[in-house]
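Supplementary Note 3. Input sequence used for the single-chain structure prediction.
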Amino acid sequence: MDTITLWQFAILAAASALVGFSKTAVSGANTVSLAVFAAVLPARESTGVLLPILIAADLIAVLVYRRHAHWPTLLRLFPAVAGGVVAGAVFMLWADDEAVRTSIGAILLVMAGVTLWRRRTLPEPEPEPGTEPEAGAASRGGRIKARSYGVLGGFTTMVANAGGPVMSLYLLSAGFRKLGFLGTSAWFFLIVNTSKVPFSVGLGLIDLRSLLLDAALVLFVVPGAWLGRRCVDRINQRLFDRLVIWATVLGGLQLLLR
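The predicted structure, written as discrete structure tokens, is reproduced below.
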């Protein structure tokens, strides 16, 4: 990793603040951050630099939304996610940056399109406040959907830290409301991102130089997370859903066009 300029550091600091904001307000917005990191740093190395920053933001999000997690959903997802992470680690052994960007960008755009189509053709009634999401999650169709999204989420988060949009679309499709969405997502990514550390170290994506840069950038996560927490109560449910979907579309386009 070459020495970065002051201007490049400022750009990375802003992207780190956006990571904090996304974890406490609009999940999926940090796809912009991963594109910024990959533009400033070598794309492969950027994933190793970004991972500790994501974990720091996940810790803050868990502290803020820890009571709103839906653990049956998490337990349903984790086995499939583990398989996706292992597949992603194997993929990283041979795939180049272009293959990673193109495949994940296309996946995100297709999934966002499917979500938008479902909302237009099969509108689902909003659950009453205080009710549990996923009324049909225990069905065979619900289990298949959870496994499919879980594998895809594990794969995309391993190869490019891009699992956020995948899991955002799953949680939206499962009927999660805003706080349940953020709480479940916070615990999910804290556990998954922490589990990725040994793989990233083994692949040479995390080393002493990347950790030194992380030590400086992680300071900017806190104000971003604070701003997100201040904003989230002012975002209504319909706007929240739309922001998540369009952040996914933007992230997919950035990956494809970068």
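Confidence is low (pLDDT under 50) at residues 125-132. The chain has eleven helices and no strands.
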